[in-house]
Design a protein that fits this description.
Chain lengths: ~270, ~325
């Protein structure tokens, strides 16, 4: 019998700094079949295990990438690792992500706050490859300050196939070579309103998600056209341990992406 | 079968296995599941033990992997010893039936279960803790419970024996018992017959949040976790790594957890999704009345009544059920 808790041991082949407290790890994991938005459980023996969204394109079968912000003991240890070091990977976990059938041939609005951009990058890269027939992709990307923006170097590339709008909570301390606004992310709904008939994919801290939901409802988005990627504590990743449970669902198994229509009646969901 | 034959069957089981059974600690003391060597200690008086049959299949701390030179090595499951769970009452059999579903793909549980013989029983001549199950018993509930051997003590003291698996049949034959009836397991759910009370509770919890109910329970609840400790369908866990850094040696274990504890829902960065007792107790009930029914079409409450007995502030699951059932009838 297969041991579902046994991680695969993989080598780190590249590490990039994403920000002062965040790194992008490229892992030597070939032929992993996944959809954007799925995640893997990453572990280091002795330091535990935690879920991380896959940040590379699903068509890239040579390696996978995950972004790690330093917030706890496991992520601190991850930040100490070097190219050539090994770590454990379990996955892909969760449901094949974004509701592909629903977003094909539709305009897509991605609203990402902070670390939320990491799994979105998988979709952004995928869309850029042109294999998926999305219509226009609009990205609202919010961060606390310019030093916290990930993938800055890729912005130009992203903008070839999508409309990127950056929002910073505080004034940048350096000159930026792309457009941005200062203030809360929801201001972008006024200054750069989403295209008609869009499907919204929202991922970020709960407080952001709540305000974004309000804006989307004002603009007339139906519950069926709004998707949230949820963050919860996970211990098993396969719907047993109960930590990530929401209403009748498990975020690890049935999510992490949920249609708002399916979860809106769950108390305190956002 | 008579008592003498039953006793020799128990002796046979004790010979080759670790035998767990309900035992009265001392007169007026606790009624516990304990390892038994003297079979006269086995107590089949119809009462449910104070704690459920969990430790034997899902140990409080279980090593998933040993860590050696910073590598994970699967703990040796071949070393598990054969065990018999003797005297499992109907509500607890229901819980074990549920475990088989929940832990279907869990190698550790499955390894333990393979080494386990489950002997259920009902004592129709004794005053039981779960008389509401007795009526179901008459309606062939045994087909929907998982066990290897089942013992029915009839009012007159006569004993009927059933097998519920191939393993059960083999052991009965090996013990020289020929006079038994085989019952084929027909799945946990009664064919095309969902429990209506379960459906109503699920509906009540999912369609409307009864703020008054949960806030008043939240005010009472101490979040001590006792109900989770005694509930046979509470099986949540957390995983933990321990390591001696200089040696690179340690272990990855999973340990019992409860959704009442402070950090149960805490994520990186410190955000907690259940940050007060009203949310925590609602979450606990959701597991019983929403999630288990949604996943397996059976109720997550087996009706053992342990949580009500254990609660230091007298939160009564039957009262909560009553309110929820009332809610389900509204609109």
């Amino acid at each position: 019998m297969e041991n579902i808790y046994q991680p695969q041991v993989v080598k780190i082949i590249k590490i990039d700094n994403l920000a002062l407290d965040a790194k992008l790890f490229r892992l030597d994991y070939k032929n992993l079949k996944f959809f954007p938005g799925q995640f893997v459980d990453v572990s280091i023996p002795g330091f535990g295990e935690a879920p991380f969204g896959l940040a590379s394109s699903p068509t890239n079968q040579k390696y996978i990438e995950i972004g790690v912000r330093k917030v706890g003991s496991l992520t601190t240890k991850l930040h100490e690792l070097k190219v050539g070091d090994k770590l454990g990977v379990r996955g892909p976990l969760g449901q094949g992500y974004w509701p592909l059938d629903k977003i094909k041939k539709r305009n897509v609005l991605i609203v990402a706050g902070g670390c939320g951009i990491l799994p979105c990058r998988s979709l952004i890269l995928w869309a850029q490859e042109g294999a998926q027939k999305f219509k226009d992709i609009t990205i609202y990307y919010g961060a606390r300050e310019c030093g916290q923006l990930y993938f800055e170097k890729e912005f130009k590339k992203w903008q070839q196939k999508s409309n990127l709008f950056v929002s910073l909570d505080t004034k940048p301390t350096k000159k930026l070579d792309y457009g941005y606004q200062v203030g809360v992310i929801t201001k972008l709904f006024k200054t750069n309103p989403p295209l008609k008939g869009s499907v919204a994919l929202v991922i970020g801290p709960p407080v952001m998600a709540r305000f974004v939901l309000k804006e989307l409802k004002v603009l007339g988005f139906t519950d069926e056209d709004i998707y949230f990627s949820l963050e919860r504590r996970m211990e098993c990743g396969i719907g047993i341990c109960q930590h990530c449970a929401i209403g009748p669902y498990y975020v690890c198994q049935d999510g992490p992406v949920f249609c708002w229509a399916d979860i809106k009646n769950i108390p305190d969901i956002l | 079968m008579n008592y003498k034959q039953l006793t020799s069957f128990f002796k046979y089981l004790a010979k080759n296995n670790i035998l767990y059974s309900p035992v009265l600690e001392k007169p007026g003391g606790r009624f516990l599941i304990q390892e038994v060597t003297d079979i006269s200690e086995i107590d089949l008086n119809g009462r449910l033990p104070d704690y459920p049959w969990r430790e034997q299949l899902l140990p409080q701390q279980e090593i998933l992997f040993n860590i050696q030179q910073n590598k994970l090595l699967e703990s040796d499951l071949n070393k598990l010893l054969p065990q018999v769970l003797l005297g499992v009452g109907l509500p607890d059999l229901r819980a074990l039936t549920l475990y088989d579903l929940v832990f279907e793909k869990d190698k550790y549980y499955q390894a333990r279960k393979r080494k386990t013989l489950v002997v259920g029983y009902i004592n129709l001549g004794a005053k039981s803790d779960y008389t509401h199950w007795h009526k179901q018993y008459e309606e062939n509930i045994l087909e929907h419970l998982k066990f290897d051997v089942f013992i029915e003590i009839v009012k007159t003291g006569q004993i009927k024996v059933f097998s519920g698996s191939e393993k059960g049949q083999k052991i009965l034959e090996a013990a020289g018992i020929k006079d038994y009836q085989h019952i084929d397991y027909a799945g946990a759910v009664l064919e095309g017959k969902l429990n209506q009370e379960m459906v109503a509770l699920q509906k009540a919890m999912q369609s409307k949040y009864n703020k008054k109910l949960w806030q008043s329970l939240g005010k009472k609840c101490l979040a001590c976790g006792k109900c989770a400790l005694v509930c046979p369908t509470c099986f949540c866990f957390y995983a933990q790594d321990q390591i001696e850094l200089d040696k690179g040696q340690g272990k990855r274990t999973r340990c019992w957890d409860t959704c009442f504890y402070n950090n149960f829902s805490k994520v990186a960065g410190g955000n907690k999704f259940q940050d007060n007792n009203a949310k925590r107790i609602h979450f606990w009930y959701e597991h019983k009345f929403v999630r288990i029914p949604a996943q397996f079409q059976i109720s997550g409450c087996v009706g053992c009544g342990r949580c009500t007995k254990a609660c230091p502030v007298s939160i009564d699951i039957l009262k909560t059920k009553k309110t929820l059932l009332k809610d389900s009838r509204k609109k």
